Amino acid sequence: MIYQRSSALFAEAKKYIPGGVNSPVRAFKAVGGDPIFVKKAKGAYLFDEDGNKLIDYIASWGPLILGHAYEPVIKAVVEKAQNGTSFGMPTEIETELAKLAISMVPNMDKIRFVNSGTEACMSAVRLARGYTGKDKIIKFAGCYHGHSDSFLIQAGSGAVTFGSPNSPGVTQGTAKDTLLAAYNDLAGVKELVQANKGELAAIIIEPIAGNMGCIVPTDEFIKGLREICTQENILLIFDEVMTGFRLGKGGAQEVLNIKADIVTYGKVIGGGLPVGAFAARTEIMDYLAPDGPVYQAGTLSGNPLAMSAGLAMLTELNNAPEVFKSLAEKTAYLHKGIGKVLTEKNVPHQINRFGSMISVHFTDEPVVDFASSAKGDNDTFKKYFHGLLERGIYLPPSAFESYFLNDALSYEDLDATINALKEIDL
Ligand code: HOZ
């Protein structure tokens, strides 16, 4: 495939935008080469500026669970836009989306809408600190909760891809309140909690991690976290920006059967428009301004276009929850197909999967945390990534990201992907 125009557009973008992109992982630095510039997309396919058609496995990093340009979402946004795009005043649709979202997820009474997953996680931690009157938090190495200061400590996603898991610009004062544990290491968490007894406001976790590849928690680990939090009066924050409304109606809370104290959302809840949210029980949420003392605000929060996209998306998922099963089956099919080809090629690999999230790691060892994920062979990943790209298949351009399947993908698309892999010399 030819990507000439994309390369020219990238060269032009680099003159005016740092690195030519507005989010680092898009720049392809981890895999080399120039990024693809998208012209349009429909269903499971991207159409780039060179006229290539690509099968898409990122779905805008998760939101487009039903495929690109999904008709009911587009219709809702276009209709809404006729009446004005932003008011900075309350609108009825905010309550409609709040009601629907709360009805779909377990254990949440109230929800506040923001504009991104970063804002949602940043606000959730502030709320946890205000509510508990404590300062410290525990996060897990390789988990990524957006780019606010408290979280850029051994962060995953683009932060680790580009070698700045601890970003310059985060003050030591901020960093000292973020304690670090290893994913799936309950003993390590227990030690940290004992060493900081009475000082911890929250433990924040991606209940299925998606920013160091896809990593699944053991039952013992995730249940243990819940127990520790309950015993020690620490709030358990589930960052469900990736998993919320993707793994099931009730997200990871439902599929893992664990109740969190605060849950953050993003991606699917905005149907492809910029929406983040955080939710909790009433006694916690009432700590937020204007009812309570913890401040949080935003001019574009609850924006009517974004709310209409989110409402259309969640309405579809609420009415047709069989989509979650269908997606999980497609992902299992892809897992089996890729696994067979890599085994036949004698390429050491691990495939991690949960629901419609999946990642391929080129290593012999099980990938259960950041340290094991980082052992993946990036040279093989680059060949795998570019080999598939040359054959019209678009994967996340970093080994530290999960793929997100969308339900517009057909079994023919999955077979085309598996067959393309057969042709690649790894
Ligand atoms: N940090 C996002 C993935 N985990 C990537 C966002 C983007 O580049 O759009």
UniProtKB/TrEMBL annotation:
<keyword id="KW-0663">Pyridoxal phosphate</keyword>
<dbReference type="InterPro" id="IPR015422">
    <property type="entry name" value="PyrdxlP-dep_Trfase_small"/>
</dbReference>
<dbReference type="InterPro" id="IPR005814">
    <property type="entry name" value="Aminotrans_3"/>
</dbReference>
<dbReference type="Pfam" id="PF00202">
    <property type="entry name" value="Aminotran_3"/>
</dbReference>
<comment type="similarity">
    <text>Belongs to the class-III pyridoxal-phosphate-dependent aminotransferase family. HemL subfamily.</text>
</comment>
<dbReference type="InterPro" id="IPR015421">
    <property type="entry name" value="PyrdxlP-dep_Trfase_major"/>
</dbReference>
<protein>
    <recommendedName>
        <fullName>Glutamate-1-semialdehyde 2,1-aminomutase</fullName>
        <ecNumber>5.4.3.8</ecNumber>
    </recommendedName>
</protein>
<dbReference type="InterPro" id="IPR004639">
    <property type="entry name" value="4pyrrol_synth_GluAld_NH2Trfase"/>
</dbReference>
<dbReference type="GO" id="GO:0030170">
    <property type="term" value="F:pyridoxal phosphate binding"/>
</dbReference>
<keyword id="KW-0963">Cytoplasm</keyword>
<dbReference type="InterPro" id="IPR049704">
    <property type="entry name" value="Aminotrans_3_PPA_site"/>
</dbReference>
<comment type="pathway">
    <text>Porphyrin-containing compound metabolism; protoporphyrin-IX biosynthesis; 5-aminolevulinate from L-glutamyl-tRNA(Glu): step 2/2.</text>
</comment>
<keyword id="KW-0413">Isomerase</keyword>
<dbReference type="GO" id="GO:0042286">
    <property type="term" value="F:glutamate-1-semialdehyde 2,1-aminomutase activity"/>
</dbReference>
<dbReference type="InterPro" id="IPR015424">
    <property type="entry name" value="PyrdxlP-dep_Trfase"/>
</dbReference>
<keyword id="KW-0627">Porphyrin biosynthesis</keyword>
<feature type="modified residue" description="N6-(pyridoxal phosphate)lysine">
    <location>
        <position position="267"/>
    </location>
</feature>
<comment type="subunit">
    <text>Homodimer.</text>
</comment>
<dbReference type="GO" id="GO:0008483">
    <property type="term" value="F:transaminase activity"/>
</dbReference>
<dbReference type="GO" id="GO:0005737">
    <property type="term" value="C:cytoplasm"/>
</dbReference>
<dbReference type="GO" id="GO:0006782">
    <property type="term" value="P:protoporphyrinogen IX biosynthetic process"/>
</dbReference>
